[in-house]
Structure prediction request, 524 residues.
Amino acid sequence: MHTLRVYRRNLGAHLRATLEYQADFWILVVAAVLTQGAGLVLIATIFARVPRIHGWGVWEVVLIFAMMVLAQGTSELLAEGTWGLAGLINRGELDRMLLRPYPCLLQVCASRVGMNAFGNVTVGGGLLVTALLHLDVAWTPARIGLALVLLPSALVIKVSLTVVANSTSFWLRGAINTFAAGMDQLGELTKYPLSIYGVGLQAVLATALPFAFIGFFPVSVFLDHGRLAWIGLLTPAVAVYCVLLAVTVFRRGLRRYESAGN
Amino acid sequence: MRPYRAMARLAWRNALAYRVPFLMSLSMLVFNLAAMFALWQALLSDGNSLAGFTWPQMKAYLLVSFVTNCLVSTFTDFAMASRIRSGAVAVDLVKPVDYQKGRFAEALGFALLETTAALVVCTVVLVAFGGVPWPSPGQLALFAASLLAVVPLKFLIVYMCGLLCFWTQNYLGISLARTAISGILSGATVPLVFFPPWLRHVAEVLPFQAITNTPAMLFLGRSPGLSAVSALAVQILWVVGLWWLARRLWHVAVRRLTVHGG
Prediction:
């Protein structure tokens, strides 16, 4: 409990600091809206001409897209600091964090707040609600329960995968971790129905780097879409696996850390 | 001319020295290409055509769009932005070379590497996914000319966005916004013919469409005879106009510069 409170206060401090620069804040909100807008333009223009892609209609695809954007926003809010991990290692600044009586991973996560987070959470949340309204979902208690399990699990998966991607900095040792950015971009592939990709790529995105469990599989099971919809029920299990993976990889990496020597 | 040649050479060597970030940022564009390939293949592979695009034509379009995305993408803007923010730009100011030409020389140095990398990727894709319709030699010459014009055009847009750092500290937001706007209006996200008429008209009067739409249409032979030449002329006019505009912007911007000691 104490741990969580410190984490929240740490984030809060960065949040206030970030909000001091109002022009920067609005620039990034606009940038986030435009970036996601470009993705929507693609979806809208395609569905203006075809009714379905591999059996997926426009609002179903928007729902997947919304989950991805919301998850991205969440990870920018809760774990943006991990993007600075490469720099912390490179300059030996992790020393300071190791001296404090508080989990190093959480300190790293809370060492920054992504300003895109506000734009992405708003856009993602708005799209999620809009898509659900258009989809005519029967809100039985079971389905509400399912949604309440799937949504947080999906968000946890995204945050954990961000930590995993950036923890590779312990091995790569550059000042900027471009590998993590590349992995993140690979995850972007799951904004579209997974079946459009080759079997190999599908397998990677569903198992080794389970980005497909952020949007595609949870939405599949929620809408009961297709033969493989049941895979979506594994989302909470994948979330647990991803958290364990993130903690393990970070710990392993930390053991390799040897400061900067000055 | 000599100092500029040296700057271009230095930029090229610099890019070679930092291969890993370069290759990673290239890989991000490659992942995006993979997603677009899968998406359009799902829509077009069974002999359909959308807005006059068959699958081989769309392949060609996506590859041209990939090449234009690669050009002037990685180095120029963030390097320039960080020099303005840190005040290191003061050193550039005392050098007896023109600032704009100097940055352009660097962009050319990078572009050489970017072109090489893009061509390698295109070759691999062509081998893996089969051919595209090749234009006649005359069209091909026009296409090559317009691809050459993309380098200064894209440079000028990036350069002017970089100059905005004289007003704001937050280059990330500007860069993201520029990428999104340019992605939509250049035709890199979706070919312009897919847009509703009003959006297409907006795109057609702006310089962005000359980045992707013009070379792609020339490659596909969509603008026959005289209109091909006029498309190229419009592109070159944009280069000349923006070169002048960027100079004006520089003169205004540089007056705002305050460098604290050193």
Observations:
- Residues 2-256 of chain A form one domain.
- Chain A touches chain B through 40 residues (CB under 8 Å).
- Chain A has one domain: 2-256.
